[in-house]
Design a protein that fits this description.
mainly alpha
Length: 117
């Protein structure tokens, strides 16, 4: 899938690898959050998952936001090859992952608040 994405996006593997890594780390953070929510739902102690969940999500979202800012800054400065299709692809993919992750984090926080009551 990574090779197909590189071909479609006109990107080299090194350009897409950061987003691939971010997607994997984001999936790990969301999985930790899902397990913590499930454990809370069945009445088990889920506190051991909260710190790793927060760390994984914070680190990944920080990198995604950094990627978005870097791509927008390069385009605004008119850097060489800034408007290449690959940069637009990376900008859109990083933005979509960050927005969807924030939505999931908000839903997770609501779930944990309900379980706390």
């Amino acid at each position: 899938m990574v090779i197909i994405g590189c071909i479609l996006g006109g990107l080299s593997l090194s350009q897409i690898w950061g987003l691939f890594g971010s997607a994997n780390q984001l999936l790990a953070g969301i999985a930790l959050m899902a397990v913590a929510a499930w454990l809370g739902q069945v009445g088990k102690n889920n506190k051991m998952f909260l710190i790793p969940t927060v760390f994984m999500l914070a680190a990944t979202l920080t990198q995604l936001v950094y990627t978005v800012i870097a791509k927008v800054s390069a385009m605004a400065a008119g850097a060489q090859n800034a408007f290449h299709w690959g940069n637009w692809f990376q900008l859109g993919f990083a933005s979509a992952m960050a927005i969807l992750a924030v939505v999931l984090v908000i839903e997770g926080v609501k779930t944990f608040k309900k379980q706390g009551k």
